[in-house]
Amino acid sequence: MSTGTVVSPGGLLLDARGITKAFGGLVAVNRVDFTVPSEGIVSLIGPNGAGKTTFFNVIAGLYRPSAGRITFGGRDITGLKPHTIARLGIARTFQSIRVFANMSVLENVLIGMHGHLTADPLRIVLGSPAVAAEETQAHKEARELLIFVGLKDRDGEMAKNLAYGDQRRLEIARALAVRPRLLLLDEPAAGMNPEEARRLMEFIRRLRKELRLTVLLIEHQMRVVMGVADWVTVLDHGEKIAEGAPEEIVRNPRVVEAYLGKEALA
Amino acid sequence: MRILRRLTPYRTPVIILVLFLCFPLIDHNAGHVNAAADAAVFVLLALGLNIVVGFAGLLDLGYAAFFAIGSYTYALAASPFYGLHLPFWPMLLVAAIVAGVFGALLGAPTLRLRGDYLAIVTLGFGEIVPTVFLNLPKYTGGTNGVVGIDKPTVFGYQFGFNPTPYYYTLIVIIVLSVIGILRLRDSRLGRAWLAVREDEIAAASMGIDLTATKLLAFSFGAFFSGFGGALYVAKLGIVSPDQFNFTVSFTILAMVVLGGMGNVFGVIAGAAILYEFQTLFLNDLTQWSHSLGQSLGIRVLTTINFVDLKFLLYGLGLVLLMLLRPEGLFPERRIRAIVTETVAAEVPVVGTAAVADSHGADTTPPGAA
Fold first, then answer.
1. What are the percentages of helix, strand and coil residues in chain A, rounded to 5?
2. Is the CB of A98 less than 8 angstroms away from the CB of B201?
3. C-alpha dihedral (B308, B312, B318, B320), degrees to nearest 10
4. Which of A7, A95, A36, A31 is nearest to A214 (CA)?
């Protein structure tokens, strides 16, 4: 899973400084400093509309930040295009599932590998044997990834025919196919019952252990991340209101206030 | 043996190809062979447009522009107009490459556009290109176009006005094009086109360069029209701007839609059927109607001309197609899935729940509950 990126001296894989994103007059993210240590599992939580997904989209390059600077593995990635950022080793899933609905399960994963495949149009048209060999190898790797996420023998099915939870797995397999150093998961447990959410968190720990991945995870429900994250950052109204180990965060009055409102404290 | 095994999935197309190879040997009517050769040009055009519209999902209403560019490239390079008489076969490839380059050039300004806006801009390019050829008489012959375009030769055999050699040449070019297009479709590039058609944001987030992917679609789409253009004007001997008006773009698009967007063999069938329909069938229909009218004494049947009603019939045909079979005659399975999506959405959630249960896994989506 080497991508050629170098970890910066402090062991920080991602370092975002003073990130601001404004849409016209609306400031969705306001001067947020945020770091992710290498091989950490960090969670970004906050109530609905806190700016979590906007922040994600800034990291992934879908939005250019209005201010601030992002470095990844010591390299400045501020304002790079999404496909460049993906190829540098940041892969993501989406809050509302965005699998390629009318492509097969296998093809979805192969799309994740796009940046690693080298076939160029001329060699494709001329039917170069190297292209065929690369395809065969890619199919093999894609199948292995599908087995890894628990979608064995589903290769040929159309993605949209998968059950909801399986589509979420497919999205993760597709993101893993990018061979990321950093995996961004946007509310992966949305729509899951507590038992399923627990299994998912186990799976995320496996990703770190077996693939040595760094994971940044958005979650709406605080309870879900408590067992998995080793560091939690809380956003509210676009601002960072707290960060710390999960045990500290649950006791932090500002966090409780943001989630439950002032009356709850009284 | 290996070749036989590789051809097995393409059994039907191979059988049809053999039939087409035999066609001029059976039907000695030069008019029919001529119409078949012209239809073959449109098959190439439809194959190219299918890459843009069918694979990458970019609605292009000005595709005739690239047909024009390919045609003029060969016409100017092999005619008395400049006194250049460059050989046909290399120029066939050059015409395709020039068309491909213009595909990328005209595609570039449209990259940020989607859907309706893209269609409008391509419509504009489709009108601009022939107008440019029309208004540069010094360089392109203007209204008169270019005449006396060189005929191809192969091993010393000079092509003339007999359509049969063109027909066979076109069949060879179509077969080679289909092989190339199928390889593209099944490659990382073909998958990227489909992914862009499905969801640009997800595609970009997975490392697909949207700019490069779309430009390659425009470029490859135009490339195959270059083959069609060069062969078309070599066969006809003349080229003029009025051969590339909007109805040509429209006809090619109708061929792609009729055959089934995205399906290579479907659009070949669509192009062949529609071309023969407008050139042979409408003529025959007019004659039958006239003789029927005379024998029955019905005046209106003796005066009607179905060829003049071509676009009325096209319109009716397309309306019927959209009502009865919106995915085209020979749909690609994905397109069928997209077109019938609304119907499928009404099919009960029970099915989804059953699938989820059988894997002992996840809940149905909140929306479905």
1. 40, 25, 35
2. yes
3. -120
4. A36
Interchain CB distance below 8 Å, A125 and B198: no
- Which pTM was predicted? 0.88
Residuewise pLDDT in 10s, chain B (369 residues): 677 777 777 888 888 899 999 999 998 888 899 999 999 999 999 999 999 999 999 999 999 999 999 999 999 999 999 999 999 999 999 999 999 999 999 999 998 888 889 999 999 999 999 999 999 999 999 999 999 999 999 988 999 889 999 999 999 999 999 999 999 999 999 999 999 999 999 999 999 999 999 999 999 999 999 999 999 999 999 999 999 999 999 999 999 999 999 999 999 999 999 999 888 888 889 999 999 999 988 888 888 888 888 888 888 888 999 899 888 888 877 666 666 554 444 443 333 333 333 333 333 333 333
Residue B141 CA, distance from chain mean position? 27
Point out the residue among A86, A101, A163 whose CB comes nearest to the CB of B362: A163
Q: Is B188 on the interface with A (CB under 8 A)?
A: yes
Distance CA B243, CA B38 (A): 13
Q: Are A164 and B363 in contact (CB under 8 A)?
A: yes
The first and second tokens of residue B25, run together, are: 């040997």
* Angle made by CA atoms B270, B273, B278, in degrees to the nearest 5: 120
CA distance B3 to B8: 9
H-type alpha helices, chain A: 52-59, 82-88, 105-112, 121-125, 129-148, 164-177, 194-211, 222-226, 246-251, 253-260
Q: Decide if A203 contacts A151 (C-beta within 8 A).
A: no
Q: Which domains occur in chain A, in start order?
A: 1-89+180-266 (3.40.50.300), 103-177 (no CATH)
Quote the ipTM score: 0.91
Torsion of CA B13, B17, B18, B20, to 10 degrees: 140
Integer Cα distance of B224 and B53 in angstroms: 14
Contact A121 B216 (CB under 8 A): yes
Q: Which domains does chain B have, with CATH numbers?
A: 13-262 (1.10.3470), 340-369 (no CATH)
CB contact under 8 A, B363 and A165: yes
